[in-house]
Amino acid sequence: MASLRTATPRLRNYFKDNYIPQVCEALLCGILTTCPEDPLRYLEEMIIFIIENGLESLLWDMCIEPSMKPKIRRLSETYMEQLFGLDDQLMTPELMIKACTFYTGHLVKTHFCTWRDVTAAHINGSVISVAKMERAIEHYHLKLQKLIFHLWYSYIKRQKEKLIATLSNLHLMFSTYRQKVFITRWREEVKRRNKIRDDELALKHDLQLKTWRSTLKFKRSEGRDSTDLPELGEYPAFDISLLPERAILQDESMKHISEGCPGVLYLNLSNTTITNKTMRLLPRNFQNLQNLSLAYCRKFTDKGLRYLNLGNGCHKLIYLDLSGCTQISVQGFRNIADSCSGIMHLTINDMPTLTDSCVKVLVEKCLNITSVVFIGSPHISDGTFKALSACSLRKIRFEGNKRITDACFKYIDKNYPNITHIYMVDCKGITDGGLKLLSPLKQLTVLNLANCARIGDMGLKQFLEGPSSTKIRELNLSNCVLLGDSSIVQLAERCTNLNYLSLRNCGHLTDQGLEYIVNIFSLVSVDISGTVICNEGLSILSRHKKLKELSISECYKITDVGIQGFCKNVPFLEYLDVSHCTQLTDNIMKTVAIYCPQLTSLSIAGCPKITDAGIEMLSAKCYYLHILDISGCVLLTDQTLQDLQIGCSQLRILKMKYCSHISMREAQRMSSKVQQQEYSSNDPPHWFGYDSNGKLLTGHHGNLPFKGHSEAKMKDLYSSEDELFDLQTQAEN
User: What is the C-alpha R_g of the chain?
Assistant: First the structure.
């Protein structure tokens, strides 16, 4: 039984199921390796060891000591299976030789192929290099073509853009040239039409002037045939109508009035001699009285004011004027508060005895006050503003006060949120800081800070940054000498609804500033008197077609040319003040007569070159003239008044001071034609700069401002010479 390959399957399965080959292999390997002295005893022990460990875990080296186990790799499960012919792998020596031969052949083939590839690469290197070079050259040519195409495309694009730009420039040049041609023709046509219009107006004016002169001669001839006028001595020395009628009103008269007119609502007792007796009658007989004026009535006392609370009292009183009543003390104001708690409008002017205490006791009970006027009350201070914070003020007016400072405007937006009118004239304590505090006001429409000389550009700019700048309607900054063009720029941008603007005596305002003022299209009235503007500035201002009022008094650089250019472009002018512009002649009178027929007020005071011929042209055309000031026009004669009587039938106010060639007789005759007249035949004062014949005085020139006049005005504004000197120094710096 050397081999079981031909044995029956039962026998082969028996050997496999009982692990006979594995047991024999383990025992045989153990004997061959250990070589025991007693092999049988060794076999007995190993069989027992195998039985104890089980046939499933049997290995071929299980019977060998661990230290003697060989480190060889087993090719099959057991060598005994091959020995007994029980293996299924058919692992024969022939197969092993064949496998080794195949492996060796494959290895040789692999090495040969690798050698061939390496050798072939060296052989074909030149061919590959040539192919790579050809591809590189092709790639370079392609890249070069792309670069050239890109450069060509960029060049064509730039050329196209240049061509488009050139065409645009040509089109723009053509359009500009066409516009210039059109504008030139339009200007020529406008000049031609203006010339025709001017010629027609001049011809019409000449015809009207001739007609008017004929009418004047006819009326004069009728005057010679009529009865001669009475001589100067026949006129009464005084006219009783000139006396104040209220001066004769006394307590007895008021008694009869109170009994006969119990329903009076408005009662004006100013400048009368009433006493406490009349004050006792007011609450008894005038129970519906709403407006009461006691201005300059100095006969009643504090006790008389206490009578206002008798009977039904004057509790319906809403307006009270106590101007000039210096006899009223703090107790008197307390009596007013007790009697008339419903007062809404309070006026107290020319009262140097008025103090903060008086206002405080009045405001304690009169909480409905909406407007106050304190002019000529130098002793009230910021405390008055603090006391008035309890009222809902809408209008305040202070004038000529040095104790009021910027502190009065602190928290003004919280204390007086609805205030609309602020008049703080000639209050020297107000500076740029105070103007900044006014900027938060949202309802302010009127602001008058005239003669507040410490206000400058910085303060005005800060004020214009607030919400009130868009709603302001009237702005008066006269004599704020620190203001200049820099703040006017922001003024024109922010104040789009401004109607009235006064920059009188703002010496730093120039023609450049007028470039911005003319852009305020809502502007109706402008006062730039006392500035250094010239004819060019008037030409700029004439672009504003809606101007109705213009004041350029004491603008010494203004000539006839500037006035003529302005009046031609502003046909709706109603008010014109060119006083003390000494270079003006009769030509402006002709210009005004032709182009401003709707003029209602004209001032040519201090213009020594105006003659009767100028007034004659004015009288022939300006039928609506109501106010005329010819003071200092020393060349005017009685002929002027005769022309005015015939031509200007609506004249109401006439001022003709320092007119030495106008007689008293003619002036008295003229006084019966007008409501108010001022006349004197004295020589012009020295600060006018010329004598009674219109000749310039020594040291004065027609193109210079009147130094004496300016100094006189400045001294009126400032109390001390030191303050005036400091202000002038600050303005120069």
Answer: 59
Instruction: Please count the residues of the chain.
Output: 733
| CA-closest candidate to residue 291, choices 311, 272, 314 | 314
Burial of 137 (0-12, 13-18, 19+ CB in 10 A): exposed
Q: What share of the chain is helix, strand, coil (3-state, %, to 5)?
A: 50, 10, 40
Q: What is the pLDDT of residue 339?
A: 85
- From the CB of residue 464, how many other CB atoms can be counted at a distance below 10 Å? 22
Backbone angles phi, psi at 225, to 5 degrees: -75, -25
Measured in degrees and rounded to the nearest 5, phi and psi for residue 346 equal: -125, 125
Tell if the pTM clears 0.85, that is, is over it. no
CB 31 within 8 A of CB 39: yes
Residue 331 amino acid letter = Q
DSSP single-letter state for residue 36? -
More confident residue, 218 or 566: 566
Residue 625 CA from chain centroid, whole number? 39
Residue pLDDT, tens place only, 35-64: 888 888 888 888 888 888 887 778 877 888
Cα separation, 490 vs 456, whole angstroms: 13
DSSP labels, 161-230 = HHHHHHHHHHHHHHHHHHHHHHHHHHHHHHHHHHHHHHHHHHHHHHHHHHHHHHHHHHHHHHHHHSPPPP
**Residue 153, C-beta contacts closer than 8 angstroms, at least 6 positions apart:** none
10 Å Cβ neighbour count for 583? Answer: 18
CA–CA distance from 677 to each of 137, 287, 654, 673 (Å)? 111, 40, 5, 10
More confident residue, 227 or 427: 427
List, in order, residues 6 or more apart from 85 with CB less than 8 Å away: 3, 4, 5
- Spatial separation of the C-alpha atoms in residues 656 and 630, rounded to whole Å: 5
Which tens digit of pLDDT belongs to each residue from 519-554?
A: 999 999 999 999 999 999 999 999 998 899 999 999
- In degrees to the nearest 10, what's the CA dihedral of 306, 308, 314, 318? -60
Q: Report which residue type is found at 243.
A: L
For 515-553, the three-class secondary structure string (H helix, E strand, C coil) is HHHCCCCCCCEEECCCCCCCHHHHHHHCCCCCCCEEECC
